[in-house]
Each structure stands twice: as structure tokens, then as C-alpha cells.
Amino acid sequence: MAGRLENELKANGRKRSGSTEHVTEAQEYIEKHYKEKFSLKRIAGSLYVNGSYLLRLFKANTGHTLLWYHHYVRCEKAGEILADDRFSISEAGEAVGFASSSHFTHVFKKMTGMTPSEYRNDRMEK
């Protein structure tokens, strides 16, 4: 999973314009608070910037939305948990902040191209 997501982030992560400091700070905020429900207001407020400005800036600099990055971080962390078969799929989703296992499965598949079960099976085969 890390390969596909990291390649996409790197490919679109070229710095294009605007204050990259705010982009980096937004990424760091999400990485620290990924278990929490996504809130543009809370992220922008922590950086003392306007939410619309932050959305445009983040997209211009990374090629992705803040919500996409939030999902990216959650799926990366979930992938680490799924590698340990002591935890169920729903426990992995809950551990990274998803309220329901169906939403976790939907987002995980959208981000990685595999369901959490497929991902786990793929990891176990390697």
C-alpha cells in the first residue's frame, strides 16, 4: 500500500506556489490528529489562516485535498495495524478513527485499490 500512496503523493507533491510552511504545518497537524474527525475549521484555526485559503494552498502545493491527505494518513496507519493479525479489520479501522467499519473499508479501498481483507491477505503472502 505504501508504494502506491507514496508514489502518488510524491508525484503530486512538487511545490508549486504559495506558502509551503502552511502546507507542512497542515500535514503535521493531520499526522498528529488523524484519529479525530476531519475538521477544516480546526486545522485552519490551529494555523491561524482562512479555511478556503488553506484548501487552495494545499491543493496547489500537493495536488491533493486536505481530506485526501487525512485519509492517506489514516490508511497508512491502518496498514501497519492490519499487518498484525491479532487485530480485526474493524479494530484497525476504529484504531485510526473511523466510526464504522463500512466507511473504513470504503475509504481504504478507494485509497489503496484493495479492501482491508485483501490488503491483509496480500501482506501475509509476502
Report on this structure:
By secondary structure, the protein is an all-alpha fold. It folds into two domains: about 15-65, Orthogonal Bundle (Arc Repressor Mutant, subunit A); about 70-125, Homeodomain-like (Arc Repressor Mutant, subunit A). The chain has eight helices and no strands. The chain has helices spanning about 1-10, 20-35, 40-45, 50-60, 65-80, 90-95, 100-110, 115-125. It starts with a helix and ends with a helix.
Summarize, please:
The protein has 126 residues and is mainly α. 72% of the residues lie in helices and 0% in strands.
* Mean pLDDT, all residues: 89
Please write the CATH class name of the largest domain: Mainly Alpha
Q: In total, how many beta strands?
A: 0
* End-to-end CA span: 13 Å
Question: Which percent range fits the helix content?
Answer: over 70%
List keywords for this structure.
126 residues; mainly alpha; Arc Repressor Mutant, subunit A; 2 domains; 8 helices
Give the SSE map.
Blueprint: H1 2-12, H2 20-33, H3 40-47, H4 51-62, H5 66-82, H6 89-95, H7 101-112, H8 116-125
Helix pairs in contact: 2-3, 2-4, 2-5, 5-6
